[in-house]
Design goal:
Layout lengths: L1 E2 L5 E2 L11 H7 L13 H12 L19 E7 L8 E6 L4 E7 L3 H7 L11 E7 L2 H7 L2 H23 L2 E3 L7 H8 L6 E10 L1
Antiparallel strand pairs: 1-2, 2-5, 3-4, 3-6, 4-5, 6-8, 7-8
Helix pairs in contact: 1-5, 2-5, 4-5
The chain binds flavin mononucleotide.
């Protein structure tokens, strides 16, 4: 990991070949809600972010499909117990494959509270938050664009899920939370809505 002057965190380049066969990942994918108390390495965090929304084409196309290639999703990492990120909230920049610091502090407990008290969530090394700027898609597709955004969140979540499985990490999709509380914990911009939380840790 390289930390540059303005605190931008350059992430390790993702592995884009090799790994376990897809059929094996599909067969073994299971929701995990208990995590070992081991620090999540930045290399794994970088790989998971890339799997969810990484750039895979010179024209900016990503790992997950997007209606009209408009890319409404925003990815945040709530670092709880990681090797090299201070506890806090970070925002993924797919184009640069970087994280920008968003908010300092310990937010595992607050996030668990916001998720109807799913306290196990704070045992994760990090919680990946898939959020969206609906306007990016609805400006072209109108009301139907909302459906597209939700479908895309599912694509990104499954990519992240299968990548976690490939890295022998556990995760689960958490959709039960108070939108306003998660928005508040993450201090999301007014036009960004949280859609899914994915706590990740060693199983
Ligand atoms: C949209 C969505 C929301 C979910 N929300 C939660 C949640 O809030 N808490 C939780 O523990 N699991 C949640 N789950 C996980 C499901 O409970 C889980 O996928 C299901 O029991 C099947 O188990 P499996 O994922 O191991 O196949 C959610 C799954 C989806 C797809």
């Amino acid at each position: 990991m390289t930390q540059v002057a303005n605190n931008i965190i350059a992430l390790p380049a993702p592995q884009t070949s090799g790994g376990k066969p897809l059929q094996q990942l599909l067969q073994h994918r299971r929701s995990v809600r208990e995590f070992q108390q081991a620090k999540l390495p930045i290399k794994q965090i970088a790989q998971l972010l890339w799997a969810a929304q990484g750039i895979t084409h010179p024209q900016g196309l990503r790992t997950a499909p997007s209606a009209g290639a408009l890319y409404p999703l925003e990815l945040y990492v709530v670092a709880i117990n990681t090797e090299s990120l201070d506890p806090g909230i970070y925002h993924y920049q797919p184009r640069q494959h970087q994280l920008t610091p968003h908010r300092e502090g310990e937010y595992g407990k607050a996030l668990a509270r916001a998720a109807y008290g799913q306290t196990w969530l704070q045992q994760a090394g990090a919680v990946f938050v898939i959020a969206a700027r609906y306007e990016k898609t609805t400006v072209k597709y109108g009301k139907r664009g909302e459906r597209y955004v939700h479908i895309e969140a599912g694509h990104a979540a499954e990519n992240l899920f299968l990548q976690a499985e490939a890295l022998n990490l556990g995760t689960v999709v958490v959709g039960a939370f108070y939108d306003d509380e998660v928005t508040n914990v993450l201090q999301l911009p007014a036009d960004v809505s949280p859609l899914l939380l994915m706590p990740v840790g060693f199983k």
